[in-house]
Automatic annotation (TrEMBL):
<feature type="transmembrane region" description="Helical">
    <location>
        <begin position="127"/>
        <end position="146"/>
    </location>
</feature>
<dbReference type="Pfam" id="PF00528">
    <property type="entry name" value="BPD_transp_1"/>
</dbReference>
<dbReference type="GO" id="GO:0005886">
    <property type="term" value="C:plasma membrane"/>
</dbReference>
<dbReference type="InterPro" id="IPR000515">
    <property type="entry name" value="MetI-like"/>
</dbReference>
<feature type="transmembrane region" description="Helical">
    <location>
        <begin position="103"/>
        <end position="121"/>
    </location>
</feature>
<keyword id="KW-1133">Transmembrane helix</keyword>
<keyword id="KW-1003">Cell membrane</keyword>
<protein>
    <submittedName>
        <fullName>Sulfonate ABC transporter</fullName>
    </submittedName>
</protein>
<feature type="transmembrane region" description="Helical">
    <location>
        <begin position="12"/>
        <end position="33"/>
    </location>
</feature>
<keyword id="KW-0472">Membrane</keyword>
<feature type="domain" description="ABC transmembrane type-1">
    <location>
        <begin position="57"/>
        <end position="241"/>
    </location>
</feature>
<dbReference type="InterPro" id="IPR035906">
    <property type="entry name" value="MetI-like_sf"/>
</dbReference>
<feature type="transmembrane region" description="Helical">
    <location>
        <begin position="222"/>
        <end position="241"/>
    </location>
</feature>
<keyword id="KW-0813">Transport</keyword>
<keyword id="KW-0812">Transmembrane</keyword>
<feature type="transmembrane region" description="Helical">
    <location>
        <begin position="68"/>
        <end position="91"/>
    </location>
</feature>
<comment type="similarity">
    <text>Belongs to the binding-protein-dependent transport system permease family.</text>
</comment>
Length: 258
């Protein structure tokens, strides 16, 4: 197998995680890692099977996924529209960009005390935290992407008689799309980080609720299982984002499959 073919093999990216899991299992079986501190992969899998059989696993994964999707949709839409308006209309940029940048520097998880006062500990609070966390990465990348579109292409489009809408759909948006998709991939990671924290605060369902309950009863296998679930959901989200990149940027040689 040629060198490039080996790197492009679908198994290659999973070699390091597989080695880590095997090493983790071996160290656990040799009691070099105590199960009370870090359960072995087999124990974590057994916990997952047990919760799956009771239906608790599916229910909590569904609840967390729903919160993540709603929060991402709201925050992503707001961030995209703000980036779009500020990137294309100078008046909006002068009016709002400085204020947005000031708010962006505030860690959104530091708003938790205020969010609890505003929304309580219900679904609205969790979705709000996710939306705020998602909004800024998408905003800054959309804004930056539009600003960095080659002005020569825009001028060429004007010379060919393109309308403003045609300029936007054929030149500005495609040119900004790589940056926008980078913002989406980054925001997806922020989504799950925000949700982890949000679900440990007075939640009655979700993966974070599972982790909090398991911690109180010292069920380390379930605690580790929740961490693995967040990792899997995050990886799945990133995989979907990469598929979108390949589809929306197939005109760009850098995003084509080798």
């Amino acid at each position: 197998m040629k060198k490039n073919q080996w790197y492009n093999n679908q198994i290659f990216p999973w070699l390091l995680p597989i080695v880590i899991v095997i090493l983790w299992q071996v160290l656990g079986q040799l009691n070099l890692i105590k199960s009370t501190m870090l359960p072995t992969p087999f124990e974590v899998v057994e916990a997952g099977i047990r919760l799956f059989q009771t239906g608790e696993l599916q229910e909590n994964v569904y609840i967390s996924t729903k919160r993540a999707v709603i929060g991402f949709a709201i925050g992503g839409a707001i961030g995209f529209l703000l980036g779009l308006f500020n990137g294309t209309i100078l008046f909006f940029e002068k009016l709002t960009d400085t204020s947005i940048q000031m708010i962006r520097t505030i860690p959104h998880l530091a708003l938790i005390p205020l969010v609890i006062l505003w929304f309580g500990i219900g679904e609205s609070a969790k979705i709000f935290l996710v939306a705020v966390g998602v909004m800024f990465p998408i905003y800054i990348n959309t804004f930056s992407g539009i600003k960095n579109v080659d002005r020569k292409l825009i001028e060429m489009g004007k010379v060919y008689g393109m309308s403003k809408w045609q300029l936007f759909t054929n030149i500005i948006l495609p040119g900004a799309m790589p940056n926008i998709l980078v913002g989406i991939r980054y925001a997806l990671g922020v989504t799950w980080i925000s949700l982890i924290v949000a679900e440990t605060i007075g939640s009655e369902g979700g993966i974070g609720y599972m982790a909090t309950t398991a911690r109180e009863f010292m069920q380390m296998d379930v605690v580790v299982l929740t961490i693995v679930l967040y990792a899997i959901l995050g990886k799945l989200s990133d995989f979907i984002a990469k598929l979108c990149e390949q589809r929306l940027l197939k005109w760009n040689p850098a995003y084509r499959k080798n």
